Each structure stands twice: as structure tokens, then as C-alpha cells.
Fold each of these.
Amino acid sequence: MRPAILTLVLIFSLCLAAQAADYDTGIDAYSRQDYRVAAANLLPLAAQGDARAQYSTGILYQQGQGVLQDNALAWFWFTKAELGGHPRAVQARFQLESIMTTQELEQARKYLQE
């Protein structure tokens, strides 16, 4: 039984390391202004619930970097990051809301309900 537990711990640790590597790869690509690579690495992590990746994905959508610019999706990802405890997500969402149209906010709230 102990070897099975040790194996599970090792597998879990490797998964966390791979996830961190994808996040780091995404952030490194962002810093090099390679936004498509950043999006390719960050979007899957954001979908898996990584608050750091959700916040960064919100920035990508807000700025239209590596993805089509979309305020509703940016708001969605900032909100998900906020719910995940990201410290800067609340401010980012409020700043974005101040420039969003009523239609964009309605669409963003629909995304959150899906």
C-alpha cells in the first residue's frame, strides 16, 4: 500500500511541476511579446482553475494580445481569478467595467453562468 501512495504523490508532484512550467512558459512568452504562445500556455491553465492564469488570460483578452480583443471574456476571466483569490483581479475587473458597454456586461455575465 505504501508504494501506491508514494507513486500517487510522485505523479501529483509531476503534474504540478508541468502545470507550473506551462504557466512560466506563458509568462516568459508574454514578456517577450509572443502573445500567441502566452495564450496557448495560459488558456488551458485558466480553464483548469489556475487563478494566476485566469488573471493573465483576462489581460490577454482585454488587450487583444494573442487572442481577439473581447472585453466580455476579459471580465469573465478577471471574475474567475477574483473568485480564485487573485489579489489584483478585483481592481482589474472594476476598471474594465468602467469602460464596458451594457451589451458587453450582459454577455460577460452570460459567460459566467455557462
Amino acid sequence: NTPPAPARAGPNNTGPRGGNSNAQVVNCVFLNNTATSFGGAAINDGGSGGTNDSRFTNCVFLNNAAPTGSGGAVYNFGGAGSSTPQLINCGFQGNIAGNGGAMYNDGSNAGVSNPQLTNCSFQSNSAANGGGLYNNGMGAGTSSPQLTNCLFFGNGGANTFVNNMAGGVSASYSFFDAAVTGYSSGPGNLTATLSPFVSATSVQLRNGSPAVNAGDPATTSATVGNTDLTGNPRFFANGGTPAGRIDMGAYELQEMPEIFTLKNGTWNDPNVWSVERLPQLNERVRLKHLVTIPASFLALSGILIFDPASKLIYTTGGRLQLGQ
């Protein structure tokens, strides 16, 4: 059955019982909305033989809630029907629910709920079950969100994704904190222990994040548009390889990306570097600490910058190669 629509300020995009809903929502902010049961900010309803293929582009979902219900920000209902919305360049921050802090995808009763998420960022969403996404495929249904160029950090670790029955997350060119489980890993995925975001209250990318220039190289403006969530160019030629390769997440870094040191240590220790890997020849590198090039090791860098009090120490046979 179609879930009852709770009172809210956000949309209820409804196309059940043989109907269709294809709402187009662009450049919107959903802030502090609450529902008692389903979808604190929005419901995309294609249940009971209906279809829903709504599209959200460059939207923010901030501090929405379904405290005892499902889908703190968005509830996609495809029970005995189909709900496959697209969400592009969207940010989810601080949403809460009983199930699916940011999003609940319901494909129960032989239904389908397979949202397509492209360049979306999720941080600090929480729920008892599924801080990021709860995917319900009970009753011979299917709930399989598709993630491309997405970021998930700080949404409950191993509780970020909960997959019930025939539910599961498929991801490519996406970034997860190292504790996240419950997704099938395609090409280009990254995990890290350091947040890719500038702070715990913003999903903008920090400089030095491994998510910069790490999105699917096949992504074009035809799939994500020409601007990011702040209206800046979605493709920014900031020295990546290739130049202008899209960043992961809803925001595009608008400056030269930079790798920097986090602590004193040896050059060949990935934990010394902000990207949790070693620098390459084409990258801008900033030393903020004392770093030693080990014996007989070849260190690589593009532009190398020294902050005050930083130092580079060569041991016997250690070498540094600078690129362009």
C-alpha cells in the first residue's frame, strides 16, 4: 500500500496505481522539515503499479527528520511499482530517521526502488538502521541504488548502508570512510580514514582530498550539468590528470589541488600525506613538517612548497624527482 503522506513543507511526488510522477526539482534547499512516518523532506511515490522517475538537481537536504519513521530526507516508495528517481549534485547533511537517515528506498512486494545518485555527498546523517541509506527489497522486490562519483563519510560507519533482503548498493568512482560496508565495489572507488570535507558541518571538498580529480573520467556535462552545488563550474581545469576531470561529490574544488603533510615522518609512508598515498610527479606538494627521504628511495613531486619550520632530509641514496 502507498504510505500515507505526512504533513511537511517538502514535496510529495505521487504517481501510484498506474500513474506516473516525473517532477523536476532544481536548485532547492530542504531545511528542517519533519515527517511523522515517511520522508522528512520528500516522497517519490510510484507504488501499487505506478512509476516515479523524478529528478533532483543541485539540491541541499539539511537537518530534515522522520525521527520514528523512514527516510529522514527522502523516501522512495516503489512497493508493487517503481520508484527510480535521479539525484545529481545533491548534498545530504545532518538528516535523521529511524530507518534510512538520509534516504529510504522501498522496493517491497515485487516492486523496484533503484535511485540513481550521481555526484552526491552525504555527511553526518544518522538512523538506528542505515545512517545513509536503507534499502528494502522484501517480498520479491528489488532495491539497488546506483552510486557514481558520490561521497559518504561520517554516516555511521558499518551502519551507513542497511540492505534488507534483495537490497544492495552498487558503487563506482565513489568515496567511503574505511568502516563502510554493504556495497558492491566497481571501478574507481576509494576508502580513507580522513574526511574528504572541509569540516564536519559542510560537504564542500577540502584541498588535499583524494576525491579531487577522482570522479569517473567518462562523466560529461550531459549527465551532471555545467555547475556544481554552489553554481561554480562543474568541470574545473585545476591541474588534474586529465585536466578538468570531475571531482567526486556535489562540489568542485575551484583551486589548484594540493597534497600536504600531516605529521613528521618518512616520504614513503602514506599516512604522512593528506591523501593517504604518496605524491606523484604531476602534483603540487606542500611540506608542513619534517620529512625524510629514506635510503635509496626515489621521491616524486610536481611543484614542491616549503612552509616555515618544514624540512626535507635526504638519507644515503635518497633522491627527489620534480615534474612539471
Amino acid sequence: MATTGIVNSRLLVIQVGTVTVSCLTDATFSITRNTRDTTCKDSGGWSNVLAASASWEMSGSALFSFDGTYTYDDLYALIVAGASATVKWGSTVTGDTVYSGTGLLTSLEATSPGTDENATYSFTFMG
């Protein structure tokens, strides 16, 4: 049954293929619509634009582990290969909306923030 009411953020995940990235701490999905300028002398001093190409990004951060289902090591292999992957952002609850596309992993960063802190990593897919 689909989620109703305000969605708890812990339900929202990023999947690569059909596997959820392990131990996510945040997940972001954004869409950008570029424009093309159609301003001319007939515009009365106002800018005019029309829609042009669109792009999207899915990014996330996770706790670093060596034994998760889909971890930094899997993303590392993907970025080194320069391979595209099907990625999904949404809930794993049946009936909820899921946004998906084929994207390229464009950044991957691991962080070790000082003494006795959790090691983390972040990543971004673009499509």
C-alpha cells in the first residue's frame, strides 16, 4: 500500500539497478531545465525564454562500510569503468512514486573526519 500523509525521510533511498545504496544518511534528487533566450525588440523590455534541454542529478551520502549490500567499493568500480547505470530515487514501499533514469556517476568522495568519527562518502549521478 502506498505511503500516505507526510513522508518520513528514512523511506527515501537511492538504488543502483535494483539494489539500495547501503547506510544512506541523505538522498537528493534535482531536475534542471535550461532555457534559450528569445528576447527581441518586440519584447517590450522583458526577457523571454523558451524551454531547452533538461538534466537531473541524484546525490547521496552514506556511512562507509566494507560489508554492506551496495557500498563505496561498488560505486568506485562504476566510476572507474565510466559505465552508466540505472538509478532510482524514491521509496521502496509498493505503490509509491519512484523517479528513475540512466545516469553517469560523476563524483565519488570518501571522508575520514578526525578522530573517533564515522567515515562517510558522497556521490553524484547525472543524467
